[in-house]
Write a structure and sequence with these properties.
Distance between the termini: 69 Å
Number of helices: 2
Largest sheet: 13 strands, parallel
CATH class: Mainly Beta
CATH topology: Pectate Lyase C-like
CATH architecture: 3 Solenoid
Radius of gyration: 25 Å
Shape: elongated
Strand order of the largest sheet: 1-2-5-8-11-14-17-20-23-27-31-34-36
Helix content: under 10%
Number of strands: 36
Number of domains: 1
């Protein structure tokens, strides 16, 4: 009797589902250079344009798979349907998008938790090559942003506006541009593991409203000459609680920049900013500053700064604000042309564990540490220790891991 009742319950459940099908069933659309926009967008009959696939999206979790090739179009994602969690990616090799003249290669608006992977966005005299607007929680990963020339420079390669929790990671951004990545009014950003070059103003900038941003593990190199305007490599402006961690900056060209890392106001001071475990390789010039700060209650620790005029420069605010306050400890400041600290050294809380020794790098590409480096196990004892990294954290971008000799 009980078994019969269970079968009846199952029967009625099936009838209910047939009468009331799920309102959103995700679907995969395909795009190919051999396709046609009159096709249904299946793997056998794909669309020809990426825009057609975007316009065909209907349900949360839909996907767009793009076969390799060069696509000559400007992709506009306005997402008026408020679809959530869409994935757009290449099927295998890289997909190149060449936009119409003066238009962005990608405009992403009102896209919540979207994910874009494996696409090369090529600049073409546009103000912004990739424009992100009100797209919280979305991700750009394993992409490229390229294009332009020294005589044809975009304003911003990637512009992130009003998009909290946005992630850009493991991407190569080498478009000729004033700014590689610029963000505004976007809290909790993650800018991680990117390879950036060919900027001449600000390489990475997260401005007012980008509190609690994490900028880490980026490799920044080969800026354009001459640098213009701010001439800053990483700028944290009017931020609270942001972290600049484990970035490698290698810039040996004179006149390409003034500050490798700048934490500043001017309207409101940044505060509680953590600058740790970065390796900064400068041009050994009389102009460049390693870390410049106009900030309150911030910490600068475990950094290697080599080849600058000053390692640390604390700046007075341009408006009547509280005096800056920066705790500086457990850093290696080496081959500094002028004084390690500038004239406002009294605004620093200088610890006793800073050193000025040759870091003894094992190479001039990744700037990892040799076994005898004084930076090994010399970081701040309160810093989190990486697994397998030794007795305490090292100074610099890369933690030293001892090679185990097998018998």
């Amino acid at each position: 009797m009980l078994k019969k009742r269970n079968y009846l319950n199952l029967f009625f459940c099936i009838l209910f589902l047939l009468a009331n099908p799920p309102s959103s069933i995700s679907k995969i659309f395909y795009v190919s250079k051999s396709g046609n926009d009159h096709n249904p967008g299946t793997s056998e009959k794909p669309f020809y344009s990426i825009q057609k696939s975007v316009d065909s999206l209907k349900h949360d979790g839909d996907e767009i798979l793009i076969f390799p090739g060069d696509y000559y179009e400007s992709v506009l994602i306005n997402n008026s349907k408020k679809i959530i969690g869409v994935k757009i990616k290449s099927t295998d090799e890289i997909v190149n998008i060449f936009p119409d003249d003066t238009k962005p290669a990608l405009t992403l608006k009102y896209a919540i938790n979207w994910r874009i992977e494996g696409i090369n966005f090529c600049g073409n005299n546009a103000k912004d090559i990739v424009l992100i607007y009100r797209s919280p929680g979305s991700i750009i990963e394993n992409c490229m942003v390229s294009g332009g020339s020294s005589s044809s420079i975009a304003f911003r390669a990637v512009y992130i506006l009003s998009s909290p929790n946005f992630v850009i990671s493991n991407s190569t951004i080498d478009a000729f541009s004033e700014n590689n990545i610029m963000a505004f009014m976007s809290e909790n950003l993650l800018i991680k593991g990117n390879n950036l070059s060919n900027s001449n103003a600000i390489t990475i900038g997260f401005d007012a409203g980008c509190n609690y941003t994490v900028c880490e593990e980026n490799y920044i190199h080969d800026r354009l000459l001459p640098g213009i305007k701010e001439r800053v490599i990483i700028q944290c402006r009017e931020n609270i609680g942001s972290t600049i961690r484990r970035n490698l900056i290698v810039e040996r060209q004179d006149n390409s920049f003034l500050d490798a890392i700048l934490i500043r106001g001017p309207g409101n001071p940044s505060k509680s900013v953590l600058v740790e475990n970065n390796t900064l390789i400068g041009p050994s010039s009389q102009t460049a500053i390693g870390i410049a700060a106009n900030t309150l209650s911030s910490v600068c620790r475990n950094n290697i700064v080599v080849g600058f005029r000053n390692a640390i420069k604390v700046k007075f605010p341009s408006t009547p604000l509280a005096k800056p306050e920066v705790k500086v400890d457990c850093n290696d400041f080496y081959n500094i042309a002028g004084s390690v600290y500038d004239d406002n050294v009294g605004l620093c809380k200088i610890g006793s564990a800073n050193i000025s020794s040759d870091p003894l790098f094992s190479d001039t590409v990744y700037y990892k540490l040799n076994p005898g480096s004084p930076c090994i196990d010399s970081g701040d004892p309160s810093s989190a220790l990486l697994p397998g990294g030794g007795k305490r954290i090292d100074i610099g971008r890369h933690e030293y891991y001892q090679q185990v000799q097998l018998p």
